[in-house]
Design a protein that fits this description.
The complex is a heterodimer of chains A (about 325) and B (about 325).
Chain A: H1 7-36, H2 50-58, E1 65-67, H3 73-78, H4 83-91, H5 124-137, E2 144-149, H6 156-167, E3 172-178, E4 181-182, E5 185-186, H7 187-190, H8 198-202, E6 205-210, H9 214-229, E7 235-240, H10 269-279, H11 285-307, H12 327-336
Parallel strand pairs in A: 1-2, 2-3, 3-7, 6-7
Antiparallel strand pairs in A: 4-5
Helix pairs in contact in A: 1-2, 1-10, 1-11, 2-9, 4-11, 5-6
Chain B: H1 2-15, E1 19-23, H2 39-43, E2 48-50, H3 55-66, E3 71-75, H4 86-93, H5 96-99, E4 109-114, H6 129-133, E5 139-141, H7 146-158, E6 163-168, H8 171-174, E7 192-195, E8 200-204, H9 208-218, E9 223-227, E10 230-232, H10 236-246, E11 249-256, H11 261-272, E12 281-286, H12 296-299, H13 303-314
Parallel strand pairs in B: 1-2, 1-3, 4-6, 5-6, 8-9, 8-11, 11-12
Antiparallel strand pairs in B: 5-10, 7-9
Helix pairs in contact in B: 1-7, 3-4, 9-13, 10-11
The structure holds thiamine diphosphate and magnesium ion (MG).
Thiamine diphosphate sits at the interface of chains A and B.
Chain lengths: ~325, ~325
């Protein structure tokens, strides 16, 4: 099908991709429900963006870097980030590698070559350019993928990063996850031109893809990664999907939009994946059901398990501001405890 | 407080056709904190403008409008996201009057929610008032209750220089009070004495006003509480008068301690009131760290920390 893999290898790779999408979906549903039950403070759902992220992830090597944003759970799961790591972050417990300091959806998975997630959108993009410069400087064979939404293309950071990456011919894949909404603003009101077309103005290569279809996305991503890796400079991928859920658990989309793609409909990326895999003869309804209940079981079990972990100790709040704690912070810590 | 600001914005839009609101998600959605709810439906999308996601553009464009006869009221969704617009604020808005010898001025009111208390972590909790207050040319306001929010905003509508109107998001829905329907103003640059007292003076503002008041009432301390209301230019004479009376003073704010407003007020008092002071000038503030998510309650000043400082001050007589 893709001419990238041979028969059995292809089947394994595709099934693993599907399995990541399912696990992400189950994870998403679990966290949204837990938030409503008051067991989680906040969350930005990823439902609808699974195929985009898994498709791109499939085209990467483990040592490629990802400078991701807050909606990239499927991306992280497919690159092997354990569900526990995501749960610990969301719960902000004492096992969280960032010590419960960030609000939910702001993950850290350094050992899987992900950057720490920030809230101010697109501020990760210039950093990805710097990372790519370092890679080029050291003559390494790696690429950097940086992800962001459609709304984020309006920022000065997007412009700066696209321009710099192009000027220095750097191996950066700019993955715009166009879910067609930036909170309440539809993409038509965000920009007058299609996002992928902006690449040309910077001297980069731009391409648009159906981000609901993981195989289409994979093919485009593979091509983009090959380009970047072979020194042909940055690529801007516009992957078009749809934000099926609310912007966040604090958001009520009924205030500003009619229902678009719904879960389980023909354009749901998971439904598309199932159709593709069935057409290839790689999967049956029975296997699908089994995979889904297994994913649900894993998520439920891990959630209950991680929920028992206590919060970080108050004194941890004062660490990591600088390498050496300043005398002011030392004093403040002493006063407080 | 949400309702008081909403009705004041409504009033401003109805009175003056040159007033426009602009920002992210303020129109159709009504704002992520619902402060601008219903205003786009009433005044149209040309006057309550949903902008693309670009703070630098929102602020820069507002300055251009203000220079040309309009009265823009931009919203930055969270103060934490203002920093790409910092250049526009510091180098354009703040300096236009000065650099043109008074020929240009920027009558803009920038509204933005700030501070902690909503479990927002590093990027939805910051208190950046000192950055703005340190910029000559910017006026910085922070109301602590719905009455002042309306009154200060009414004054801001007639003010001719750029204002950073910092709305303590913690208080958006947590404080309720009846606000008069009629027009009234609370003067810019004038603090209010929230509570009179003789033993010590507590200078505070924004979200910390109710926290300080509750601690003082509960523990029956004879403290004078001053709510700055305007952070820059702050009301030095009200502070000075109070401190001359009580001889003891502390400053309470959420923002990190070092080089915060507490530092400025301490220096001001050290210069002018040293002879009246019986003890050190104390600060109860957030620590000099970023704002944590899960440990938010440890970060913020609270009754325990305030009373500890009160106890310490009372030792000096
Ligand atoms: C610089 C900045 N401004 C505003 C916000 C508040 N905010 C959070 S997400 C968001 C919309 C982002 O839309 P998009 O880039 O399309 O990403 P999506 O959330 O749709 O995945 C906004 C305005 C922010 N995080 N950063
Ligand atoms: Mg979007």
């Amino acid at each position: 099908m893709t001419e990238v893999f041979n028969g059995q290898e292809e089947k394994d790779v595709f099934l693993r991709a599907y399995s990541s999408m399912i696990l992400s979906r189950m994870f998403d549903k679990k966290i949204v429900t837990a938030q409503r039950q008051g067991r989680v403070g906040f969350y930005t759902p990823t439902i609808g963006q699974e195929a985009t992220q898994v498709g791109v992830s499939m085209a990467l090597n483990p040592d490629d870097l990802v400078y991701e944003y807050y909606r990239d759970v499927p991306f992280m799961i497919h690159r092997g980030v354990p569900v526990e790591v995501l749960l610990d972050q969301i719960m902000g417990n004492s096992e969280d590698s960032a010590k419960g300091r960030q609000m939910p959806s702001h993950y850290n998975a350094k050992d899987h070559n992900f950057m720490s997630v920030q809230s101010p959108v697109a501020t990760n993009l210039p950093l990805a350019v710097g990372a790519a410069y370092a890679i080029k400087h050291r003559k390494e064979n790696r690429v950097v993928v940086t992800t962001f939404g459609d709304g984020s293309t309006s920022t000065p950071d997007f412009h700066a990063a696209m321009n710099l990456a192009s000027v220095y011919d750097l191996p950066v894949i700019f993955l715009c996850e166009n879910n067609q909404w930036a909170i309440s603003l539809p993409v038509e009101k965000q920009t007058k031109v299609e996002i992928w077309k902006k690449a040309e103005a910077y001297g980069a290569y731009g391409v648009k893809v159906d981000g609901n279809d993981f195989l289409e996305t994979f093919k485009v991503a593979k091509d983009a990664v090959d380009r970047a890796r072979s020194g042909k400079g940055p690529v801007l991928i516009e992957a078009i999907s749809y934000r099926i859920g609310p912007h966040s658990t604090s958001d009520d989309p009924s205030k500003y939009r009619a229902e678009g793609i719904t879960e389980g409909s023909e354009q749901d990326p998971i439904v598309i994946a199932e159709k593709r895999l069935k057409d290839l003869g790689y999967i049956t309804d029975e296997i699908i059901d089994r995979m889904k209940s297994e994913a649900k079981r894993i998520v439920d079990q891990k959630f209950d398990e991680r929920e028992k972990i206590p919060p970080p100790k108050p004194e941890t709040m004062y660490d990591d501001v600088y390498k050496e704690m300043t005398w002011m912070v030392k004093e403040e810590k002493g006063e407080a405890l | 407080m949400v309702q008081a600001i909403n009705s004041t914005l409504d009033y401003a839009l109805s009175k003056n056709n040159d007033v426009v609101l602009l920002g992210e998600d303020i129109g159709r959605d009504g704002g992520v904190f619902r402060v601008t709810e219903g205003l786009q439906a009433k005044y149209g999308s040309d006057r309550v403008i949903d902008t693309p996601l670009v703070e630098l553009g929102i602020v820069g464009m507002s300055i251009g409008m203000a220079l040309n006869g309009m009265k823009p009221i931009p919203e930055i969704q969270f103060q934490d996201f203002i920093f790409t617009a910092f250049d526009q604020l510091v180098n354009q808005a703040a300096k236009l009057r000065y650099r043109s010898g008074g020929q240009f001025n920027v009558p803009m009111i920038l509204r933005t929610p700030y501070g902690g208390g909503i479990k927002g972590g590093l990027y939805h909790s910051q208190s950046g008032e000192a950055y703005f207050a340190h910029t000559a040319g910017l006026t910085v306001i922070s109301p602590s209750n719905p009455y002042d929010a309306k009154g200060l905003f009414m004054s801001a509508l007639e003010y001719e220089d750029p204002i950073i109107f910092l709305e303590p998001k913690k208080l958006y829905r947590s404080v309720k009070m009846d606000v008069p329907d009629e027009e009234y103003k609370v003067p810019i640059g004038k603090a209010s004495i929230v509570r009179e007292g003789n033993d010590l003076t507590i200078v505070t503002y924004g979200s910390m006003v109710p926290v300080v008041s509750a601690a003082i009432e509960k523990n029956k301390v004879d403290a004078e509480i001053i709510d700055l209301r305007t952070i820059m230019p702050y009301d030095g004479s009200t502070i000075l008068q109070s401190v001359k009376k009580t001889g003891r003073v502390m400053i309470v704010h959420e923002a990190p301690r070092t080089l915060g407003m507490g530092a400025e007020i301490s220096a001001f008092l050290a210069e002018r009131a040293i002879d009246y002071l019986m003890g050190p000038i104390l600060r109860v503030t957030g620590p000099d760290t970023p704002f944590p998510y899960r440990l938010e309650d440890y970060y913020l000043p609270n009754e325990r920390k305030i009373m500890k400082a009160v106890g310490k001050l009372k030792e000096f007589r």
